[in-house]
Amino acid sequence: MTPDEAGLALADPSAYAEEDRLHTALTLLRKEDPVHWVDPSPEFNPFWAVTKHADVLEIERQQDIFLNGPRPLLATAEADAHAAENGQLLTTLVHLDDPKHKVLRAIAADWFKPRAMRDLQLRVDELAVRYVDRMVELGGECDFVRDVAVHYPLYVILSLLGLPESDFPRILKLTQEIFGGQDTEQRRGQTQEEMIAVVTDFFAYFQGITTDRRANPTNDLASTIANGMVDGELLNDMDTISYYVIVATAGHDTTSSTIAGGLHALIENPDQLQRLRDDPSLAGPAADEMIRWVTPVKEFMRTATRDYELRGVSIKEGDSLLLSYPSANRDEDVFEDPFRFDVGRTPNKHLAFGFGAHYCLGAALARMETKAFFSTLIPRLDALDLAGKPESVATTFVGGLKHLPIRYQMR
Fold it and tell me: Which keywords does the record carry (predicted)?
């Protein structure tokens, strides 16, 4: 494999569904051409692939030089052209730069601070028990992703938002469609119009939530967002609904990928499963290792506002850069034996939550949920094995396992 061939993997959704293929490509790029020009035209516009941990950090630290807009994610050339002509389909925190990013982020920030997390711990623990009990009810065999992993964090974040439980399946389906737009099993369709239809359905749902919470505010995150103000005025419809969408989707999909991928890693590394059985205090480090191992968010893009030299490579003003988080999280210069799954790994300086101004708002919640689930599961798990072939989502943005057939014995 040449560096040019390796670079093209970053714009190939199927590569992210084949972990060995992806990491072979990323390892080669880190070694031979860590800041590599990728031109996957005509489907995608070109970009610089940034694959080293130190370089991703360098870019993320300088938010005044490297902006999220106008190309915050790797999208098709068709989608880029549509956004340039009509604006982004969504304007979430992911899409925004300061000063707007800072003021919008502050609206919900208190809900994810340590005190709020302490208050939420009981609910998270209750739901962890509920879904471990669900595994018992399923009789010793299930598709762990479909039957357990997608539901547990969904219930956590939608409970925090204060949405009715009857609406949870609808939000799950819309989330899978918006993040699975490149996956033949999960997408609604292949065209830009069909992706717009998914976003339109989100808008229709959350417009109703906004109207209700402004008329009848309650003590939930949905009310905080609906009544959030900037410069004395309520958020406009686009900002309000985009805020809901990023919290309701990223707030559960990334964690479900971590929990499913974490369980798969324990199956593949039974010695690490035994370490967790023997030492429950490792649940916290294990959660971080699962997050590093899976790295649910595969990339974000940045655009250079001026000429810049990175590792001897000349980046030109206006160039796009793809920050490869799976690559940074397996960087041999940062992680000892990076392809070893180690539930006791310390330190663990992974970049799965990003860094700097755009550090994931829900990072503490994701860690809490993952730790709570495995702290509940491991003491009750007597046997665990695969019951079929795991399958991953084809994506270039957010994803993980979509099927994990398992066979197990519980107490």
Answer: Heme, Iron, Metal-binding, Monooxygenase, Oxidoreductase
Q: Tell me: pLDDT of 179 over 80.
A: no
Top-confidence residue, 177 or 332? 332
Measured distance CA(44)–CA(39) in Å, rounded? 8
- Give the residue numbers spanning the domain of 374: 3-410
Look up the CATH number of the domain holding residue 79. 1.10.630.10
The yes-or-no verdict on residue 290 having pLDDT over 90 is: yes
Q: What total number of domains does the chain contain?
A: 1
349 φ, ψ (degrees, to nearest 5): -90, 50
Element (H, E) at 324: strand 320-324
pTM of the full predicted structure? 0.95
SS3 309: strand
User: 106 Cβ partners below 8 Å, 6+ apart?
Assistant: none
Distances from the Cα of 184 to the Cα of 17, 145, 322, 343, 396, angstroms: 12, 17, 24, 33, 14
Which 8-state DSSP code applies to residue 111? G
Beta strands 320-324 and 47-50: pairing type? parallel
| Contact between 56 and 67 (Cβ < 8 Å) | no
Calculate mean pLDDT across residues 381-400.
95
Q: How many CA atoms lie within 13 A of 139 on its CB side?
A: 0
Q: Rounded to 5 degrees, what angle do the CA atoms 336, 341, 345 make? A: 55
Helix/strand number for the chain, H first, E second: 17, 14
Q: In this structure, which amino acid lies at residue 316?
A: K
Q: Concatenate the DSSP letters of all residues of 121-174 into one string.
A: HHHHHHHHHHHHHHHHHTTSEEEHIIIIITHHHHHHHHHHHT--GGGHHHHHHH
Residue 384's DSSP bridge partners are 408
Reading the block at residue 150, the tokens are: 């997608």
> Bridge partners of 407?
141, 385
d(CA 21, CA 5): 11
For residue 234, give both structure tokens: 């309520």
Query: What distance in Å separates the CA atoms of residue 225 and residue 222, rounded to the nearest whole number?
Result: 5
Structure tokens at 134: 């669900």
Kindly report, residue by residue over 97-129, the tens digit of the pLDDT.
999 999 999 999 999 999 999 999 999 999 999
The one-letter amino acid code at 354 reads G
- Name residues whose C-beta falls within 8 Å of residue 8's C-beta, 6 or more positions apart in sequence: 38, 40
